[in-house]
Design a protein that fits this description.
The structure holds two protein chains of two kinds.
Chain A (H helix, E strand, L loop, with lengths): L16 H20 L3 E2 L5 E3 H7 L9 E3 L5 E4 L4 H9 L1 H4 L4 E10 L11 E10 L4 H18 L5 E6 H10 L4 H12 L3 H10 L7 H5 L7 H4 L8 H19 L6 E3 L13 E6 L8 E5 L1 H6 L6 E7 H7 L10 E5 L4 H13 L4 E5 L6 H5 L4 E3 L1 H5 L2
Parallel strand pairs in A: 1-5, 7-8, 12-13, 12-14
Antiparallel strand pairs in A: 2-4, 3-4, 5-6, 6-11, 7-9, 9-10, 10-11
Chain B lengths: L3 E6 L2 H12 L15 E4 L4 E6 L4 H7 L4 E5 H6 L5 E5 L5 E7 L11 E4 L2 H10 L5 E4 L6 H4 L5 E6 L3 H5 L3 E9 L1 E5 L1 H6 L1 H16 L1
Parallel strand pairs in B: 1-3, 1-4, 7-8, 7-9
Antiparallel strand pairs in B: 2-3, 4-11, 5-11, 6-9, 6-10
The chains are: A alpha/beta, B alpha/beta.
Chain lengths: 387, 208
């Protein structure tokens, strides 16, 4: 098949000036909050080895863009930011400074299978708090994400929180082995209620516990979770206390009404081993971002430390945020040979006073009317000559 | 109360779903489907119905322009959409099966399969370890074996009448199909209370 001149690779997009501007504003607002909360911004390479980041990233293999370097090694375009940052944090340089707070605003790449229009490259903005396994760290990152959503003006924002480990323990108490539990969690990720009901019939769940099992998908508060907690199991008891404590912390930070505690909530990102969460908002049909605790990922880099963080998708935030309509003033100065010097001085003077000015040699413009219509103020050659 | 946008296929499924909703106590206008309108409102319940092609319902829901929708499991199997499957409504029951001319063996090397469901068919034969060539058709699938285009077809069977009339027989059943209530993942979270309430009410109707 021949490629037409205007075509771009599947899922790649041009950002036109309007979108580029909106993104720049969003980036400024977001990263400012991130830095104010004590996080340092960093950048990691666009290309990584498939053997390291590619395999660790938990993004499915067929969503990776793979290529070969000149030595024949397989590379990937970075599919997420969490794994590269985990690597950076585990490096000798930063190891000594734990806990460390790192933030980022970067593009990531995920190949799309369906509908060429879906973006295969998009920006993510987020933080990672590494070397702190306390609940305060979790509450901090969730609250920071919340602050960013509020600052950007996302409507009816909502956070859903679950706990992978606690869910695992509870499923085990229902008598499920690891494989069955995995199947159930897969259906939970997709909130496939019909699938869960059908699967439940084949599972070794006692008849009188079936209703309770099917109710797992309906819990919305931490109190709702209590019915499934086995008080005799120390780990469950403690994790449940943690969740109660987290709820209090987040309530104190003013997030109370915006949170759904869903015990069946699980992530397809397999490196999240404990707390997991996802963000939603009006305007976008897709989640705005997600995060969680990934202590296990740090272990892969040889560090036994706690780590937690979140990432927000900039393309979806843009759908959720109504951009400021107020048009920025933009002055056009048209000049010809005679008024050139005047025009230049005038532009300099206006720019110094903080205005946005475009200087244009008038005879070079083919259609003057539509061109001048793009500006809020137009200064013509004759105006210049008259002073 | 949040407004709920519901994507529904026109025709029989709509009628059955309408009955279910009315049975569940929802106050809907009497004549919803008999106009050529694509969007109809039920102001008393703050419902807005989008009347769509069955194959498109999951697309609307995935993109969030409809909060919930009613879609056949066949469509959900064929297009792997990112939607929540909340409830089996038990309506429009049928199944997907393979069929062909009676007493025929499939071609040994690469049998040809005509279908409207290429993804379902391909997955089915791959899971059996058979290499096949899939031929996608848009309708009158039964024609394919009759005119020698394919060895087998993969299609929806409800009464088996069409197969019989065309001298075809069913070979293997692939999956049971009913209509499902599906939801957009974000709508599910932002309007969880309303959606859960709807699911509970409909469940009562379905289990009756």
């Amino acid at each position: 098949m021949t490629i037409e001149m205007f075509e771009k690779p599947l899922g790649m997009r041009d950002d036109f000036p309007l979108i580029a501007k909106q993104k720049a504003d969003l980036r400024k607002q977001g990263t400012q909050l991130i830095e104010q909360s004590g996080y340092e911004l960093l950048q990691t390479p666009t290309l990584e080895y498939y053997e390291t980041i590619g395999k660790i990233s938990a993004i499915s293999d067929d969503a990776l863009f793979k290529l070969l370097d000149s030595q024949g090694k397989t590379l990937v375009l970075r599919p997420d930011m969490t794994s590269p940052i985990a690597r950076v944090a585990a490096s000798k340089l930063l190891r000594e400074k734990m806990p460390i707070r790192l933030g980022y605003y970067s593009n990531v790449f995920r190949a799309q299978k369906r509908e060429g229009g879906r973006p295969a490259e998009f920006e993510q903005m987020g933080v990672e708090l590494i070397g702190d396994d306390s609940l305060y760290a979790d509450a901090e990152v969730i609250s920071l994400a919340w602050d960013i959503l509020k600052e950007l003006g996302v409507g009816s924002a909502r956070i859903v929180i679950g706990h992978t480990r606690l869910l695992e323990l509870i499923l085990a108490d229902f008598g499920l082995d690891a494989e069955q539990s995995g199947k159930v969690r897969e259906l939970f990720v997709a909130k496939n209620g019909v699938g869960v009901e059908q699967l439940a019939k084949e599972l070794p769940i006692a008849e009188d516990e079936l209703t309770s099992f099917l109710k797992l998908m309906q819990a919305t508060t931490v109190v709702d979770w209590k019915r499934w907690i086995n008080e005799e199991n120390e780990e469950q008891r403690e994790l449940y206390r943690d969740m109660e404590r987290l709820e209090q912390l987040l309530e104190r930070n003013g997030l109370g009404d915006a949170i759904t505690f869903d015990i069946s909530f699980s992530s397809h990102m397999t490196y999240y081993t404990g707390l997991v969460f996802e963000f939603y908002g009006a305007g976008s049909g897709f989640p705005l971002g997600s995060g969680g605790r990934y202590d296990g990922l740090m272990e892969q880099f040889g560090l036994q430390v706690g780590a937690t963080g979140f990432g927000l998708r900039v393309d979806r935030l843009l759908e959720s945020v109504t951009p400021e309509k107020a048009e920025q003033p933009h002055t056009l100065i048209l000049f010809d040979e005679q008024s050139e010097q005047h025009a230049f001085d005038k532009a300099q003077q206006l720019r110094d006073s903080g205005k946005r000015v475009t200087l244009q040699y008038a005879p070079a413009v083919k259609a003057l009317e539509p061109f001048t219509a793009l500006f809020t103020e137009v200064i013509r050659e004759e105006d210049l000559r008259n002073g | 109360m949040d407004e709920l946008t519901i994507a529904m296929p026109k025709g029989r499924i709509f009628e059955e779903a309408y009955e279910l909703l009315v049975g569940a106590g929802y106050d809907l206008p009497k004549e919803l489907d008999d106009s050529r309108k694509l969007i109809v409102e039920a102001p008393n319940e703050k419902f807005r119905f989008i009347l769509a092609k069955p194959m498109d319902v999951p697309t609307y829901v995935e993109h969030g322009v409809a909060d919930i929708g009613i879609a056949g499991k066949d469509v959900l199997l064929e297009h792997d959409r990112d939607v929540h499957e909340l409830l089996d409504l038990g309506i429009s029951a049928c199944y997907i099966a393979t069929a062909g001319l009676p007493d025929t063996e499939m071609d040994e090397v690469t049998p040809r399969i005509a279908t409207k469901y290429p993804a379902v068919a391909s997955h089915y034969y791959r899971s059996k370890g058979e290499q096949v060539e899939i031929i996608e058709l848009n309708g009158s699938i039964e024609l394919a074996p009759l005119i020698g285009l394919s060895d087998r077809i993969v299609d929806i069977v409800s009464t088996g009448r069409t197969l019989k009339d065309n001298g075809l027989v069913e070979y293997e059943k692939i999956a049971d199909i009913t209509s499902r209530l599906i939801a957009n993942p974000v709508s599910y979270r932002l309007k969880q209370q309303r959606i859960t309430e709807l699911v509970d009410k409909l469940r009562e109707q379905v289990e009756r």
